[in-house]
Amino acid sequence: MTHGQYPSRVLIANRGEIALRVIRTVRDLGGTSILPYTPEDLMSPAAELADEAHALPGGSAYTDADAILALARATGADAIHPGYGFLSENADFARAVAGAGITWVGPSPEAMDALGDKMSARATAERAGVAPVPGITEPVTSASTVIGFAAEHGYPVALKRTDGGGGRGITVLSNDDEARSTPAFESASAGGGTLILERFVTAARHIETQCARDSHGAFAVVSTRDCTLQRRNQKLLEEAPAPFLPEGIHETLVDSSRRLLETVGYVGVATCEFLLTPDGDLWFLEVNPRLQVEHCVSEEVTGVDLVALQLRVAAGGRLGEVPPVRGHSIELRITCEDPAAGLAPSTGTITRLRWPAGPGIRIESGVVEGDVVTPMFDPMLAKIVVTGATRDQALARARRALAETVVEGVTVCAALHEAVLGMPAFTQPDASGLLGVTTRWIENDVLPGLATGAPGDGTATAGPVAAGGQASAPAAASTRTRSTYVIEVNGQRVSLTIPDGILGGHGHRGGMAGSDGGSRPAHRGQPLRGRGARAARAGAESAESAEGVIAAPMQAIITRICVEPGARVAEGDLLIVLESMKMENYVHAPYDGVVEQIAVSAGTTVSAGDVLIRFADETTTGQKEA
């Protein structure tokens, strides 16, 4: 049943900041929000804000389609909004929802099938007359195919998992030797997904269109966006509208997006993604058949509530008039990653948290002080969205917002954003009037300077930013745990952030001193990314303390185990695949030998130094057998 143009009881199959985002729109529309939660999210902000919050049974997770659908039936939900991630791109789940007589807030399963993986999306683009990045649409299973393709198109090339998203499952190869030695084929054969091959465009901007199409055939591009600033093919900063585009590109983007959605009969909100080269070539990448993390910047420059638009179109309503773009908006993703260590993941407990406020600032976050950051999901804590009448004003507000941001207990990427916002390559157009940055700019030109402490081209004068957003000690010390103190110097209040241990190991942790000298109490906490503290592993050994032990190099999740006990392996064979904050890491055999014991199972979380495999070399095995 719907009230007016919208569903009245909406189950949100998600958690964190996107769950909060949808809950608020459902309330604005006078509906009832229903939220499933797992035990660790019992005290989460989303569970507290929802009109109804229901526990998922047993060990169910947000990817458990049967449990989610059963809860929707039991609670009388008339629509399911999937958010992003989890089940949002699962066509089979969308079919099951529709089959249960519940409105699916997203495109049809058939449209999702046509766009849902990179292989079918390439075929759809070709049918629509939209040029994809040069590549091979059929599955790629061997190095010889890569080498043959590169002989025609040149290196670098990218192997991509067809089911990958958010920068996951992409392997860039630069020469024939890398093609022969990449573990990507071995990982795929062990259950790591199907691979396609594309030319890797090294110098390009990532431009996308926020689109919508209703069941009556009306189509609109709400705004363009520039998502060029990335690390490991994952977005860090986005802005709308896309600035400094060559003449005619906007019109081409709109026309290509329209044809893509019309080709598959798409109904709903979508994002069409493209690469724009310095020569003006525009290549299609993919269509995301869901709401995007960066949707907020399109909302800010148009006044359109994209979640409300999703709900209206899903209920059979019309798009209506989309206002023209006005002003400029920038989104900064605040992630638990250390710029001084190449954006290595950071985990821990958030001991202090303060977000910026004031004109033109919007915060999207689902965390509070006391939350625990683990490697279960992506490392994003929040999105800081700043909007101004012009791009220059939005940039100025972004700098102010960073200066006001305080995060303690984990290291965040604020230093990277601060550096970027001070670099002319990003803040100003080049001599041709275009934006000179590319998707590799962060990794090639910005991060090396942060790791060495050397300023880049036009870098702001402040050094790397500590977890609290304050200028920190040299980068070499930035990975150490820090404590913040408030002191007075000649009657002036000063915040001092120093590495723990400098003052005899009694550093104040978990916040700044209050007026009475006491510390700020921690909030009750929910584990931020999956389960919090784990029971200590009995007898766990580190890589340094046990011979014949292969240990976890970092805190991570075991995604695939590629061998069995007793297996004979050669040096370099793939043993285990780990994932930490959306990065895949491969564990290889250190030498020829035999797998004696596998100490973990797929889906478990391990800490750095935990035993993965007990291993014997061929010499030792031979002696035992003799």
UniProtKB/TrEMBL annotation:
It holds the Pfam family Biotin_carb_N. PANTHER family: CARBOXYLASE:PYRUVATE/ACETYL-COA/PROPIONYL-COA CARBOXYLASE, METHYLCROTONOYL-COA CARBOXYLASE SUBUNIT ALPHA, MITOCHONDRIAL-RELATED. Keywords: ATP-binding, Biotin, Ligase, Nucleotide-binding. The gene is jadJ. SUPFAM superfamilies: Glutathione synthetase ATP-binding domain-like (SSF56059), PreATP-grasp domain (SSF52440), Rudiment single hybrid motif (SSF51246), Single hybrid motif (SSF51230). This is biotin carboxylase. GO terms for molecular function: ATP binding; biotin carboxylase activity; metal ion binding. Its EC number is 6.3.4.14. Residues 505-517 have a biased composition (Gly residues). It is an enzyme of class 6 (ligase). Its cofactor is biotin. Residues 529-543 have a biased composition (Low complexity).
